[in-house]
Amino acid sequence: MNLQAAQNAIQRAGVFFSRSEDATGEGRSQIVDSNWIVVSQTPPAGSPVTEGQAVLSAVKIGEPNPC
Fold first, then answer.
1. How far is CA 17 from CA 7, 22, 55, 57, 63, in A?
2. Confidence band (pLDDT; 50, 70, 90) for 67?
3. What would the DSSP string read from start to end of 1-67?
4. Could you read off the pLDDT of 15-54 as tens digits, one per residue?
5. Would you state the pLDDT for residue 65?
6. How many other C-beta atoms lie within 10 A of the C-beta of residue 31?
7. Which residues are CB-contacts of 53 (< 8 A; sequence separation ≥ 6)?
8. Phi-psi region of 14 (alpha: psi -120 to 50; beta: other; left: phi over 0)
9. Is the pTM for the entire model greater than 0.70?
10. What is the CA radius of gyration of the chain?
C-alpha cells in the first residue's frame, strides 16, 4: 500500500497523528506520500493504536524492499 493510502486508513480508524520514516535508514523525507510504499509498520496490523503511536516505514516506489 502506498504511504498516503496507509495514512488515510489510519485516519479512518480515528487516529490523526502518525509518523513515517525512510526504511532504507537514509533519513529521507517523504514529501509526496503517494510515491512511497509501506514495507513495515509499528504496531502490527490489526493492533490497537493511539495518537502518535503508528510508525510507517516506507521506501520509494520501485526501490528494492523486503516485501
1. 9, 17, 10, 15, 26
2. low
3. -BHHHHHHHHHHTT----EEEETTSS----SSGGGEEEEEEESPTTS---TTT-EEEEEETTS----
4. 999 999 999 999 999 999 999 999 999 999 888 888 989 9
5. 75
6. 7
7. 15, 42, 43
8. left
9. yes
10. 11
If you search the block for the grid coordinates 509501506, which residue do you land on? 38
pLDDT for the residue numbered 66: 67
At residue 57, what is the residue type?
A: S
How many residues appear in the chain? 67
Residue with cell 503517494: 34
Q: Select from 33, 3, 67 the least CA-distant residue to 54.
A: 3
55-60 and 36-42: which strand pairing?
antiparallel
